[in-house]
Amino acid sequence: MPRYEFRCRACGDTFEVNRPMAEAARPATCPRGHADTVKLLSAVAVTGRGGSGPTGGIPSGGGCCGGSCGC
Predict the structure, then answer these.
(1) In terms of DSSP bridges, do strands 14-18 and 3-8 run parallel, antiparallel, or are they unpaired?
(2) Quick check: 4 and 30 in contact, CB under 8 A?
(3) What's the Cα-to-Cα distance from 39 to each of 20, 34, 48, 62, rounded to whole Å?
(4) Facing residues of 18 across strands?
(5) Which phi and psi angles does 34 have, rounded to 5°?
(6) Predicted pLDDT of residue 46
(7) Closest to 60 (Cα-Cα) out of 46, 48, 70
(8) Which residues sit opposite 7 in a β-bridge?
(9) CB atoms within 10 A of CB 4
(10) By three-state DSSP, how is residue 23 classified?
(11) Is 71 in contact with 63 (CB distance < 8 Å)?
(12) What is the b/e burial string over 7-25, where b = at least 16 CB atoms within 10 angstroms of the residue's CB?
C-alpha cells in the first residue's frame, strides 16, 4: 500500500499515512489532531536488481537484443 507524506500547517509536524491510491487526495489529520494539512510531493526511485549480470548493475541499452550489440 502506498505511503503518503503530509505536513501540518498548524504545528509544522511531518507525518506519513498508508492508504490506497484511490484515497490519495483525501485530507489527513495530523497526529496531534490538527486538520489543516498538506500532502507533500515525494520523489521515489525504483531500481532493478543491482550488482548482477555482465554490466555489474549498470543499465545497458534496451534494443532488440538487450543492448549488448549497441542496436
Answers:
(1) antiparallel
(2) no
(3) 15, 14, 28, 36
(4) 3
(5) -80, 140
(6) 75
(7) 70
(8) 14, 38
(9) 19
(10) helix
(11) yes
(12) ebeeeeeeeebeeeeeeee
Burial of 3 (0-12, 13-18, 19+ CB in 10 A): exposed
Taken in order 45, 40, 35, 23, the sign of the CA dihedral is negative
Q: Which three cell numbers stand for residue 38?
A: 498538506
DSSP SS3 for 22 = helix
Query: How does pLDDT run across 36-51, given as a tens digit for each residue?
Result: 999 999 777 777 766 5
DSSP secondary-structure letter at 40? P
C-alpha cell at 13: 509536524
9's grid cell? 500547517
Q: Is the pTM of this model over 0.70?
A: no
Q: Which amino acid is at 33?
A: G
